[in-house]
Specification:
This protein has 153 residues and is mainly alpha-helical. The chain has one domain. It is 66% helix and 10% strand. It has six helices and two strands, in the order αββααααα. Strands 1-2 form a two-stranded antiparallel sheet. α1 (2-30) runs parallel beside α4, α2 (56-69) packs antiparallel against α4 and α3 packs antiparallel against α4 (83-103). It starts with a helix and ends in an 11-residue tail after the last helix.
Amino acid sequence: MALELAIVAALPFLAVWVYEVSNMIALSIQGDQVSLTVAGWVPVGVAGVSQGALSPVTKVAQVLLCTSLLALPFSLLARARFLVAKSFVLTTIAAFAASTYWELLSQLTVLSMAAHTAIFLAGTVTVSYLLIREFMVPRSMKARLPVLTPRNA
């Protein structure tokens, strides 16, 4: 239990590093000159000089890269049967997947910030539920869990 708690305490740092390094790679692939800013042990952002307009495909590629990079830690934690750590990684993957919406926000300026936040949180919760249901719930229990449909979502 102590080992799992130590791993869970380190996972937020891993998640931030994965997200920012993925951002740096995606922007570099687009042809931008980028640099990673680090404060202590935590990256605080990526700065870059753009060769042109930021392509929405670049940010989607970043999200795909950072979610796929978390597959290895998830696999290792699954083998160790660390349920809390696995849940954290799946929820982080869900937040990264939902952040695709956040990255495309500049093209959706009609709604208020509160509405955008609600949409992002709803996306994160929905993707978290689906990932946890798929990867953590035993097959025999899945039949008893509610399924998200347009009527009950």
